[in-house]
């Protein structure tokens, strides 16, 4: 046989059969954008969608499928869909079940970009949205219409850490033939699983606690298989596919979720207990404090802790941020293994009108702490030095 030309050999490099006899301990990264099939029947079966099969990157990769199985298992749902970002996941979840002329009820305290999606983008599609105080069941119920299809809340709100009564909200939604959608990003399934309390759709930004290291971007929606199938159709048409590498990186972080969340929760509680007694701190928002408005509900729904998030109003907030420079970074995200500081007024809730921000209690003096897993003595030392 005539040897192949160098051009042919280079093009086909690495396609020879892999040696058998061992299995990688960590799943490989499947970076291929397209897959080959041995015959028309196999290709037709893959394209039918009857079971997960990789054939084109936008439709999903083996790494994404592995992550979906893991997250569905952790949230206790029938299925899951991973997406390029948390907002892509929420968009797919909502657009999968909504159509023109229908209506959404949403907590006014949702994340700023979620608020913008609900207040600006859905109405452009003919979907109406009513914002309510999800802590007031009577107000929530009064907002429902015959066309209401979804009630959307967060399990722990960003940034003021209010705790909605998810079981009661599920009853309200289901009695009216609607779905309950819960963004569980601030909690993670290690401390709260909304589906166990009646939620139909559970979303996350996996870039936060699930990945845990500020190294991978993505989102997920978990729920019944039929709801996830509808969301998947919308996501594929809009092109919000997670990369194989981001899915793989998230899975590596996911392996330590339980250990990390115990450390995050314990450290955040300790920080809240110290800050609430400091004379420079005007208010602390953390569900583990006995004066929190939903303290008893939080203790019932979150027996394993509340994660690492808290917010505080601090005298001379700009000076406090400067004093922490080099110790705790100012970064507009959350849930890293190291502690970070954020300014909701100018970052997460910037899309909201100024008046709405102030009405919700989000002021220029409010700072949000994402408490990491560092030694608590070192962490408290840094905070106390900055406060001094």
Automatic annotation (TrEMBL):
Keyword annotations of the record: Pyridoxal phosphate
Cofactor: pyridoxal 5'-phosphate
Region feature (Disordered): 1-23
The keyword Transit peptide is annotated on this UniProt entry: no
PANTHER family, per the entry: CYSTATHIONINE GAMMA-LYASE-RELATED, TRANS-SULFURATION ENZYME FAMILY MEMBER
Sequence similarity: Belongs to the trans-sulfuration enzymes family.
Record protein name field: Trans-sulfuration enzyme family protein
Organism: Deinococcus petrolearius
């Amino acid at each position: 046989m005539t040897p192949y030309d160098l051009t042919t050999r280079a093009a086909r490099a690495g396609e020879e059969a892999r040696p058998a006899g061992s299995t990688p301990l960590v799943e490989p990264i499947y970076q291929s954008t397209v897959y080959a099939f041995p015959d028309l029947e196999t290709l037709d079966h893959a394209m039918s969608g009857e079971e997960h099969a990789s054939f084109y990157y936008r439709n999903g990769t083996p790494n994404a499928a592995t992550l979906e199985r893991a997250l569905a298992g952790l949230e206790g749902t029938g299925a899951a869909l991973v997406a390029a970002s948390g907002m892509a996941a929420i968009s797919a979840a909502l657009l999968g079940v909504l159509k023109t002329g229908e209506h959404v009820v949403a907590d006014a305290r949702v994340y700023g970009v979620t608020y913008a999606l609900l207040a600006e983008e859905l109405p452009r599609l003919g979907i109406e949205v009513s914002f309510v105080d999800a802590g007031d069941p009577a107000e929530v119920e009064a907002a429902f219409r015959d066309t209401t299809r979804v009630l959307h809340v967060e399990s722990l709100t960003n940034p003021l850490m209010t705790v909605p009564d998810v079981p009661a909200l599920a009853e309200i939604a289901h009695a009216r033939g609607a779905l309950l959608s819960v963004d569980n990003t601030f909690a993670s399934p290690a401390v709260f699983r909304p589906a166990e309390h009646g939620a139909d759709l559970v979303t996350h930004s996996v870039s936060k606690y699930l990945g845990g290291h500020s190294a991978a971007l993505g989102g997920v929606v978990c729920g019944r298989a039929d709801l996830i199938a509808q969301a998947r159709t919308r996501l594929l048409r809009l092109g919000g596919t997670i990369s194989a590498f981001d899915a793989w990186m998230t899975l590596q972080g996911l392996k330590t979720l339980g250990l990390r969340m115990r450390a995050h929760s314990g450290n955040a509680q300790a920080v809240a207990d110290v800050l609430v007694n400091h004379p420079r701190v005007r208010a602390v928002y953390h569900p583990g404090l006995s004066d929190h408005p939903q303290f008893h509900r939080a203790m019932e729904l979150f027996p394993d802790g509340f994660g690492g998030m808290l917010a505080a109003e601090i005298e001379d907030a700009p000076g406090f941020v400067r004093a922490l420079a080099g110790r705790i970074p100012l970064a507009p995200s959350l849930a890293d293994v190291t502690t970070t500081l954020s300014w909701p007024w100018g970052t997460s809730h910037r899309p909201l009108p100024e008046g709405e921000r102030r009405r919700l209690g989000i002021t220029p003096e409010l700072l949000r702490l994402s408490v990491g897993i560092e030694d608590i003595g070192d962490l408290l030392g840094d905070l106390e030095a900055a406060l001094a």
